[in-house]
Each structure stands twice: as C-alpha cells, then as structure tokens.
Amino acid sequence: MTANAADFAGTRCGSRYEKELETHFRDCLLFYLDGRIRFERYCYGEAACLVFSAWAHGFDADGKILWDREPEFESQRTALPRLLTDIQESGNALQFDGLRKRYVKTQEFSVDKPNGYGKLKVWFLRHRK
Hints:
There is one protein chain. By secondary structure, the protein is mostly beta strands. The protein has helices spanning 74-79, 119-127; strands at 14-19, 25-32, 37-43, 50-59, 65-67, 84-88, 93-96, 102-109. It is built from 2 helices and 8 strands, in the order E-E-E-E-E-H-E-E-E-H.
C-alpha cells in the first residue's frame, strides 16, 4: 500500500494516533508535516511514563515503515508496527501488519517542542515549496 506519512499529519504540525483496545500499554504513532513518524509506548498505572520511543523517516513504496534504528530489546522490536495494511475512516484509522487493533487519530497538534517541532520549524515546514 502506497502512503505518504505527511498525509496523516493534518494541517498544523502533526497528528497523534493511539492504538485502540490496548490494556497494558498506550502505543502512539505521531505523524509530522515533514513525513517523519515517531512511535511512543507508555505504561499505564501509578507509574505511567514513557517506556520507549523510535523515529522513522516515512514509508517505502509498499507501505513499510522505515525505522531509523531498530530498538535493542526484542520486546521493543515486536511492539513497533511494520507495514501499513489498511487506511480506514478517511485516514482517521490506520491498520498495521494486518492486526485487528487499529491506530485511531486522537489529536492534531500545532507544535511539539519536546520532539523538535517548535513554532519556527513548523512555520518553515508549512511554507516550504
């Protein structure tokens, strides 16, 4: 499936998609205007925090996510979505690896300073030709 990661970013800085029906972790995919993708896994409960994250520089022609670097641990490698297999609800729900659980769009954000997308960078991304 051919896809451009920037198409899922929305019109501002980017969009957050969260994996539905997840009970142990909160898995998120963030799509940015420049085509970058960030995977974030958070734990639930009293000690809720970021467990790990990974960056990708988009999709290849077949819809495979091009991860910048594979995580060190097997549990992290298996958590990463690999292949976009379906786009549903006009791009508001994405299915990866043919699995039942989808990533559903939950937020569109204007800036993401902790990940390097401040106001100035977003302005340049929106006004590039």
